[in-house]
């Protein structure tokens, strides 16, 4: 992967040079990992004008959750525990002869930005914006391979839970068990805080598990994902507990399933972000559930669980091939519950079979 990371750093260097910056400082952890192979806690990456340097507040210990830095990179350790790597990087860039430094202002606090200016007063600081985030949108096949394994781990954990006794257990207990199973199957850890909602809590996108116990006849909705070598996937499923589903549950489930299928089928290179959102959203709006829908149908995934692109009504841009995204419509009826169906897919051209589904757990409405 050293060559891959070197190529990525070269692309960023070229873009910053075209904007007039002689050097670049990357501080957002996911961006550091993308360019350096690993992101030890607190580390930042300085590109040029001489060699590239990873500045760390302490020695990297090789934890899987943070990745392993590219061996071709120079690693500098700060001399004391109170030093700030971004300030040290500004000083190093100035000492190397750089007159300008591109930085990620969206990741820096005002205080850190001021400290850099004080440490290197002759160094002009310029904002590189979301340049690295844009580079990260299209994944290579090794990145997609990591996402595929993360999805397999997630499917395994969810499948095992569905085979266990659920009635009487709390949402919190089920969420903790799912996260333990993710690690047992080889995940670095959960990709995000696992959500489990039962009965009136089901179908909510960001429900925090409570002490409510699973009851017969409940909808049970789960949203979870594994992180594998830093790459994060997402799955969401809804089930019925104990008995055959009621008529209203079948109708609501079929509607959300149709919306999710429409969103998945809209994924193609060249498709506008907003059109993918519209494909799923229109199905729910036509059925009278437009009010209260989530602000977006899906989003990109990778080294972060919520990356660009955003599949939302006002999002600008079009999909490329090899872009992994979620499609996750849902409907929540206050006091009754709801349905959420969520998959991670990779955009592929029709000639390659269309969108590649990574999360394989059945979307059939099961009674558990």
From TrEMBL:
Residues 195-204 have a biased composition (Polar residues). InterPro entries: Creatin/AminoP/Spt16_N, Creatinase/aminopeptidase-like, Creatinase_N, Pept_M24, Peptidase_M24B. The keyword Manganese does not apply. GO terms for molecular function: aminopeptidase activity. Keywords: Aminopeptidase, Hydrolase, Protease. Residues 191-213 are annotated as: Disordered. Residues 146-348 form the Peptidase M24 domain. SUPFAM superfamilies: Creatinase/aminopeptidase, Creatinase/prolidase N-terminal domain. Residues 8-138 form the Creatinase N-terminal domain. PANTHER family: AMINOPEPTIDASE (PTHR46112), CYTOPLASMIC PEPTIDASE PEPQ-RELATED (PTHR46112:SF8). This is Aminopeptidase P family protein. It comes from Streptomyces globisporus. The lineage of its organism: Bacteria, Bacillati, Actinomycetota, Actinomycetes, Kitasatosporales.
């Amino acid at each position: 992967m050293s060559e891959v990371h070197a190529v990525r750093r070269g692309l960023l260097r070229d873009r910053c040079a075209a904007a007039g910056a002689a050097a670049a400082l990357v501080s957002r952890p996911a961006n550091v990992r993308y360019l350096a192979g690993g992101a030890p806690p607190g580390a930042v990456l300085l590109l040029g004008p001489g060699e590239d340097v990873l500045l760390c507040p302490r020695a990297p210990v090789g934890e899987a959750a943070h990745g392993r830095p590219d061996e071709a990179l120079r690693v500098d350790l700060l001399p004391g525990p109170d030093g700030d790597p971004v300030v040290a990087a500004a000083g190093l860039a100035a000492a190397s002869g750089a007159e300008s430094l591109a930085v990620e202002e969206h990741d820096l606090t005002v205080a850190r930005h001021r400290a850099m200016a004080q440490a290197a007063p002759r160094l002009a600081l310029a904002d590189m914006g979301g340049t690295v985030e844009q580079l990260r949108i299209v994944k290579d096949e090794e990145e997609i391979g990591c996402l595929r394994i993360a999805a397999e781990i997630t499917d395994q954990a969810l499948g095992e839970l569905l085979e266990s006794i659920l009635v009487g257990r709390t949402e919190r207990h089920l969420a903790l068990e799912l996260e333990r199973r993710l690690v047992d199957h080889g995940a670095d850890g959960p990709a995000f805080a696992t959500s489990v909602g039962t009965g009136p809590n089901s179908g909510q996108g960001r429900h925090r598990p409570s002490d409510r116990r699973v009851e017969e006849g409940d909808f049970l909705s789960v949203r979870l994902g594994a992180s594998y070598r830093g790459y994060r996937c997402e799955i969401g499923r809804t089930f019925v507990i104990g008995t055959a589903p009621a008529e209203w549950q079948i109708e609501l489930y079929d509607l959300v399933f149709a919306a999710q299928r429409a969103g998945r089928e809209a994924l193609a290179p060249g498709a506008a972000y907003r059109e993918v959102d519209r494909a799923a959203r229109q199905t729910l709006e036509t059925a009278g559930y437009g009010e209260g829908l989530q602000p977006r149908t899906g989003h990109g995934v990778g080294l972060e669980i919520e990356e660009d692109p955003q599949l939302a009504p006002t999002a600008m841009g079009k999909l490329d091939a090899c872009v992994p995204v979620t499609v996750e419509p849902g409907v929540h009826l206050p006091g009754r519950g709801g349905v959420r169906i969520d998959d991670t897919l990779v955009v592929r051209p029709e000639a390659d079979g269309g969108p590649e589904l990574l999360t394989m757990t059945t979307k059939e409405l099961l009674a558990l």
